[in-house]
Target: Agmatinase
Amino acid sequence: MTTAGPPAPDAVPPIGPPDASRSPRYTGPATFARLPRTEDLPAGRPVDVAVLGIPFDTGVSYRPGARFGPAHVRQSSRLLRPYNPELDVSPFGVLQVADAGDLEVNPFHIDEAIAQIEQGAAAVTADGARLLSLGGDHTIALPLLRVAHRRHGPLAVLHFDAHLDTWDTYFGEPYTHGTPFRRASEEGLLDRDHCLHVGTRASLYGPEDLPASADLGFATLGCTELERIGVDAVVERMRARLGDRPVYVSVDIDVLDPGFAPGTGTPESGGMSSRELLAAIRGLAGLEIVGADVVEVAPAYDHAEVTGIAAAHVAYELLSVLAAGR
Ligand SMILES: N=C(N)NCCCC(=O)O
Ligand SMILES: [Zn+2]
Ligand SMILES: [Zn+2]
Model:
């Protein structure tokens, strides 16, 4: 954050979205939640949280299309209102949130794209802004974790996903959307006693996948267990695992059941409801969240913005949790 503690009484209030009772929501540029673009803020105005699009999907193993995720989530975010009653917070009134646009990354060369994402994310956060990134496939988590680690040290990663994403290689390739958290663990970016997968389910390659993921630092709270214990107990387990560490939250939208999020590249049956996911995220209020992403929205498989709206609400809850921590 660029500013610490509650805003001083004479502090300049953040610039939020236009008043939707005067400016119809379906007008104007599709920035996230109709927020200002970073370049449209008054010169020198610090940004607390930058919403950054990362349209990259060259790392996918199945259906492509997540490169169109950022534009879709922005379009699906027009109906968000300024006040979040569940957390009693107005995220755009407490924090200066702004849309930093899209990074331009090489769609033909994964290694170069990862380097470009790392540089781009570092530039956007250079003045202390935190990042809420909109993917893009899950490959992008690796460079984002590198950037967060450089500033905050080893990270407690909270990973909402149907998949482990701790596999080793695909076709011999180490940088894919199924491998970012193995690479992050190998690179020493993770606090291995404090990472957690939530929402895991579906078929694996073999019985060794789960213990291998545990060796890399991840406890697992899968959908079967989640159904058994309920979301309040899930929140307790999450908070116990994350502790007081710097937390990075990575939300693969396929953690939701395909009924709640059909627009994604590797859908798996038996997932979380959007109500459960939003409640779980709200349960993070008070933790030290240093960065977050929402990935794997692939609009070509979406209907009526169902997935886009779910992702926009996930992003809004993440911003609300950041704001509630102020
Ligand atoms: N990160 C996502 N969404 N999916 C990873 C699935 C990798 C696989 O095909 O095994
Ligand atoms: Zn996934
Ligand atoms: Zn994933």
